[in-house]
Amino acid sequence: MAGRLTNWAGNLVFSAGEVARPGSVGELSQVVARGERVRALGSGHSFNDVADSDGVMVSVAGLPEVVEVDSAAGVVKVSGGMRYAEVARRLHDKGLSLHNLASLPHISVAGSCATGTHGSGDRNGNLATAVVELEMVTAEGDVVTLGRGDGDAFRGAVVGLGALGVVTALTLEAGPSFDVRQHVFDGLPFEALGDHFDDIMSSAYSVSLFTSWRGDTVDQVWVKHRDGDPAVPEGDLFGARPADGPRHPIAGVSAEHCTQQLGVPGPWHERLPHFRPDFTPSAGEELQTEFLVPRSRALAALRTLHAVQERIAPVLQISEIRTMTADDLWLSPSNGRDTVGIHFTWVKDTEAVLPVVALVDERLAPYDARPHWGKVFTTAPEILRTRYDRWDDFHTLMRHYDPAGKFANAFIRRNILAA
């Protein structure tokens, strides 16, 4: 391998001794069958070693592009290495949509679903909940298809952390295209969360709170209103003022690369993400952490963090708070419970950030917090296993599809197999 690959943030140099870039599923099957240790690489937008390999790393970016729309069934089959930005554009051109998108449309479909990555919205499940079928190459090079009709095996495989095989394609639910108007409000009093949290987070199709954890004010509220839903009220939003111009979540940073605001209507894929797909977000100058807590315990968790904000703020760029609905996917951070995600975009200084991540982890532990699988966390494996009811069942599924542990990299051995 000429040179070493890094993840998107550059905080991790992949340890793989070989990187394969197959041009077909047949070639991929051969690579997997002959390899002793294999891991799939998507867009590299993870901040830990979940995608790393101590053997062969397989990039799925070179597999043939697949976008097969079945309008009658309301589904689209896409190749796993495609980015959401491209899938969304192609769907919109056909008058269709996905139910949700993440903050960044730059991430790959397979990698996002495998780690339980999400968008925002009280009635919206994470991105993996749109999956109705997946195809993967398993340890012997076989191509396996699992759909919702396969019950437990499917529910265990969708958020599979790359531990069951290399996902080559996914079939996603698709609905009619829709327009969204995005408004931003400045300066929400922190105390308003205690009185109106549910009202605020349910006030539109998707709502995000951005806070720098300084003082007693939430910096911004981003409200994404789906056309046809009840209109966003004019004037203040529970004490937050309408922004007088476009905003970037981080104060003082140009909003040039953010999606259109000020209530200008536009198609779903140009409003649901916070950032436009035609630029490189932050140029990788950040680390990220996210903890997901039950909706019923979110306010207590936020108050706990507010009490230690003087430790959080010095190494923080911005924090985002958003909601998602419960699902039945075994290792989804939203499994079995309506969920609030508390996201942290840190400065790119691992030595300074890790002690603060450990502090946040400790403070949120009493609230059954689950870390995002693809971000920086310090949660002990023995704690992780207590957070998921189907943990042991996932172990059984791994033994079924990968009995020799071919896909079990250091992350899987440390966080899943050791627990």
Q: Which structural traits does this protein have?
A:
globular, five-stranded antiparallel sheet, 419 residues, 11 helices, alpha+beta, nine-stranded antiparallel sheet, Uridine Diphospho-n-acetylenolpyruvylglucosamine Reductase, domain 3, 19 strands, Alpha-Beta Plaits
- What fold name goes in the CATH topology slot of the domain at 67-176? Uridine Diphospho-n-acetylenolpyruvylglucosamine Reductase, domain 3
CATH architecture of the domain at 67-176: 2-Layer Sandwich
Give the beta-strand count: 19
The first-to-last residue Cα distance is 33 Å
Oligomer: single chain
SSE order, as H and E?
EHEEEEHEHEEHEEEHEEEEEHHEEHEHHH
Low-confidence region ranges: none
Describe the structure in brief.
By secondary structure, this protein is an alpha+beta fold. 23% of the residues lie in helices and 24% in strands.
